[in-house]
Amino acid sequence: MQYAFSIVYLLLFLSLANCVTKEEFSVVIENCAPEFNMDVPRFTALRNAVTHNTDIDNSSKCYVSCLVKAAKLVQNSKIDVEALKPLDDVFAKIDFGPCQDIKGSDECDTNYQLAKCGAQQYQKVKS
Protein backbone atom coordinates (compact mmCIF):
# COMPACT_ATOMS: atom_id res chain seq x y z
CA MET A 1 0.00 0.00 0.00
CA GLN A 2 1.13 3.53 -0.68
CA TYR A 3 0.53 4.82 2.83
CA ALA A 4 3.73 3.23 4.14
CA PHE A 5 5.68 6.38 3.51
CA SER A 6 2.70 8.46 4.63
CA ILE A 7 2.87 7.10 8.16
CA VAL A 8 6.55 7.96 8.33
CA TYR A 9 5.94 11.39 6.78
CA LEU A 10 2.96 12.05 9.01
CA LEU A 11 4.83 11.11 12.18
CA LEU A 12 7.94 13.07 11.28
CA PHE A 13 6.13 16.12 9.90
CA LEU A 14 3.75 16.37 12.80
CA SER A 15 6.51 15.77 15.30
CA LEU A 16 8.54 18.56 13.74
CA ALA A 17 5.49 20.81 13.58
CA ASN A 18 4.78 20.31 17.27
CA CYS A 19 8.37 20.74 18.40
CA VAL A 20 9.83 24.20 18.60
CA THR A 21 13.17 23.17 17.17
CA LYS A 22 14.74 20.29 15.28
CA GLU A 23 16.90 19.74 18.32
CA GLU A 24 13.80 19.01 20.41
CA PHE A 25 12.62 16.55 17.77
CA SER A 26 16.04 14.88 17.91
CA VAL A 27 15.54 14.47 21.64
CA VAL A 28 12.18 12.74 21.02
CA ILE A 29 13.85 10.34 18.57
CA GLU A 30 16.80 9.79 20.89
CA ASN A 31 14.48 9.10 23.82
CA CYS A 32 12.10 6.78 21.97
CA ALA A 33 14.49 4.78 19.78
CA PRO A 34 16.78 3.31 22.47
CA GLU A 35 13.91 2.60 24.84
CA PHE A 36 12.43 0.25 22.24
CA ASN A 37 15.70 -0.89 20.61
CA MET A 38 14.68 0.76 17.34
CA ASP A 39 17.39 0.56 14.72
CA VAL A 40 17.43 0.66 10.92
CA PRO A 41 16.49 -3.03 10.41
CA ARG A 42 13.60 -2.79 12.88
CA PHE A 43 12.43 0.49 11.33
CA THR A 44 12.52 -1.18 7.92
CA ALA A 45 10.45 -4.06 9.32
CA LEU A 46 7.99 -1.51 10.72
CA ARG A 47 7.71 0.19 7.32
CA ASN A 48 7.24 -3.20 5.60
CA ALA A 49 4.54 -4.20 8.08
CA VAL A 50 2.64 -0.99 7.32
CA THR A 51 3.16 -1.48 3.56
CA HIS A 52 1.83 -5.02 3.60
CA ASN A 53 -0.71 -4.44 6.35
CA THR A 54 0.80 -7.16 8.51
CA ASP A 55 1.25 -7.23 12.25
CA ILE A 56 4.42 -6.05 13.95
CA ASP A 57 5.97 -6.78 17.31
CA ASN A 58 4.71 -4.91 20.35
CA SER A 59 8.02 -3.11 20.88
CA SER A 60 7.73 -1.46 17.44
CA LYS A 61 4.16 -0.46 18.23
CA CYS A 62 5.39 1.04 21.49
CA TYR A 63 8.02 3.00 19.55
CA VAL A 64 5.30 4.55 17.36
CA SER A 65 3.24 5.16 20.50
CA CYS A 66 6.19 6.93 22.10
CA LEU A 67 6.55 9.20 19.07
CA VAL A 68 2.89 10.16 18.79
CA LYS A 69 2.59 10.80 22.53
CA ALA A 70 5.77 12.90 22.60
CA ALA A 71 4.54 14.87 19.60
CA LYS A 72 1.16 15.32 21.35
CA LEU A 73 -0.73 13.83 18.39
CA VAL A 74 -2.71 11.50 20.62
CA GLN A 75 -4.52 12.53 23.78
CA ASN A 76 -6.52 10.03 25.85
CA SER A 77 -6.23 7.35 23.13
CA LYS A 78 -7.73 9.65 20.47
CA ILE A 79 -6.16 11.65 17.65
CA ASP A 80 -6.07 15.29 18.78
CA VAL A 81 -7.81 16.71 15.71
CA GLU A 82 -7.93 20.26 17.03
CA ALA A 83 -4.17 20.28 17.59
CA LEU A 84 -3.60 19.15 13.99
CA LYS A 85 -5.87 21.59 12.14
CA PRO A 86 -3.78 24.76 12.64
CA LEU A 87 -0.62 23.03 11.42
CA ASP A 88 -1.55 22.72 7.77
CA ASP A 89 -4.66 23.21 5.61
CA VAL A 90 -4.50 19.53 4.60
CA PHE A 91 -5.24 18.40 8.15
CA ALA A 92 -8.44 20.44 8.26
CA LYS A 93 -9.67 18.40 5.26
CA ILE A 94 -8.94 15.00 6.74
CA ASP A 95 -11.80 12.99 8.20
CA PHE A 96 -10.30 11.40 11.29
CA GLY A 97 -13.73 10.10 12.33
CA PRO A 98 -13.01 6.50 11.28
CA CYS A 99 -9.94 6.54 13.51
CA GLN A 100 -11.44 7.90 16.70
CA ASP A 101 -13.01 4.70 18.04
CA ILE A 102 -9.99 2.47 17.51
CA LYS A 103 -9.11 0.41 20.56
CA GLY A 104 -6.14 -1.90 20.45
CA SER A 105 -5.11 -4.63 22.83
CA ASP A 106 -3.10 -2.14 24.92
CA GLU A 107 -1.95 1.49 24.79
CA CYS A 108 0.90 0.77 22.36
CA ASP A 109 -1.36 -1.12 19.98
CA THR A 110 -4.06 1.56 20.20
CA ASN A 111 -1.64 4.42 19.46
CA TYR A 112 -0.02 2.45 16.62
CA GLN A 113 -3.44 1.75 15.08
CA LEU A 114 -4.40 5.44 15.49
CA ALA A 115 -1.19 6.55 13.73
CA LYS A 116 -1.71 4.00 10.97
CA CYS A 117 -5.34 5.06 10.47
CA GLY A 118 -4.35 8.74 10.49
CA ALA A 119 -1.74 8.05 7.83
CA GLN A 120 -4.32 6.23 5.71
CA GLN A 121 -6.75 9.15 6.01
CA TYR A 122 -3.93 11.56 5.19
CA GLN A 123 -3.07 9.55 2.07
CA LYS A 124 -6.71 9.72 0.89
CA VAL A 125 -6.62 13.52 1.01
CA LYS A 126 -3.17 13.77 -0.56
CA SER A 127 -4.07 11.38 -3.44
Automatic annotation (TrEMBL):
Signal peptide per UniProt: 1-19
InterPro entries, per database record: PBP/GOBP, PBP_GOBP_sf
**An MF annotation (GO) of this entry:** odorant binding
* Keywords from the named record: Signal
Does the keyword Signal feature in the UniProt annotation? Answer: yes
Gene3D superfamilies assigned: Pheromone/general odorant binding protein domain (1.10.238.20)
Which Pfam families did the record assign?
Answer: PBP_GOBP
Q: How is this protein named in the record?
A: PBP/GOBP family
Q: Which organism is it from?
A: Popillia japonica
Q: Upper taxonomic classification of the species? A: Eukaryota, Metazoa, Ecdysozoa, Arthropoda, Hexapoda
